[in-house]
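We were asked to recover a plausible sequence for a given structure. The inputs and outputs are reproduced exactly as logged, with field labels preserved.

PROBLEM: sequence recovery
POSITIONS: 223
GIVEN STRUCTURE:
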């Protein structure tokens, strides 16, 4: 499946950022800095914050191991592996959940990726006026932060009644989900990244999970 088709159908949000301390092991090591990513997002004027995700960490490690075993690294392979491990995407009354992955060589990353290239890479038009220091991305933390902005764009672009009714076969479930989401949505983002080497090439493998969950009303206090 083409990446753009996959993004539109399978992802409510493609990327985000945030990892547990010490995650990203294996290979040559390497991980993201949650505080740096959130700082970059804040500087870019985004209210989005990112959180760690142990299940995603494990899924990324599994994807890296599988690609090494197969002898081929690609975004498509990583995405298939991460989604298979996490059994996503999923749309139910708890919300819309999706995951994805990106593979980029360290040389590509360190050479710098400008805003035009980012839009092509994520296949979504990011509001470049908000990028600030992310106008040219040349580190894993910056790549992840830019991806959050793409994710935020996508989640609002595709989390609509028409999209839900198209994706969810059960009319009853679709209607219930639409009603819940109309009352407010809580967005959460997480990502794991692993730096690894294979056949003389160093790769960064990013895995992401996003959830758009209904904001349920608070229960009254019990006397």
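RECOVERED SEQUENCE:
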């Amino acid at each position: 499946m083409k990446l753009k088709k996959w993004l539109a159908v399978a992802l409510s949000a493609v990327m985000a950022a945030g990892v547990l301390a010490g995650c990203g092991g294996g290979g040559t090591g390497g991980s993201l800095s949650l505080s740096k990513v959130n700082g970059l997002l804040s500087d870019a004027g985004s209210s989005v914050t990112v959180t760690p995700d142990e299940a995603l960490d494990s899924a990324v490690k599994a994807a890296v191991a599988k690609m090494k075993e197969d002898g081929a690294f690609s975004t498509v392979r990583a995405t298939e592996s991460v989604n298979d491990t996490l059994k996503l995407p999923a749309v139910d009354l708890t919300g819309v959940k999706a995951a994805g992955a990106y593979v980029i060589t360290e040389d590509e990353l360190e050479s710098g990726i400008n805003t035009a290239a980012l839009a092509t890479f994520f296949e979504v038009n990011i509001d470049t006026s908000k990028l600030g220091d992310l106008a040219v991305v040349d580190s894993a933390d910056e790549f992840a932060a830019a991806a959050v902005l793409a994710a935020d764009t996508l989640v609002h672009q595709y989390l609509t009644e028409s999209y839900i009714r198209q994706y969810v076969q059960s009319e009853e479930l679709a209607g219930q989900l639409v009603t819940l989401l109309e009352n407010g949505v809580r967005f959460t983002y997480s990502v794991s990244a692993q730096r690894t080497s294979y056949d003389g090439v160093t790769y960064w493998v990013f895995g992401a999970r996003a959830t758009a969950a209904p904001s349920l009303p608070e229960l009254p206090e019990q006397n």
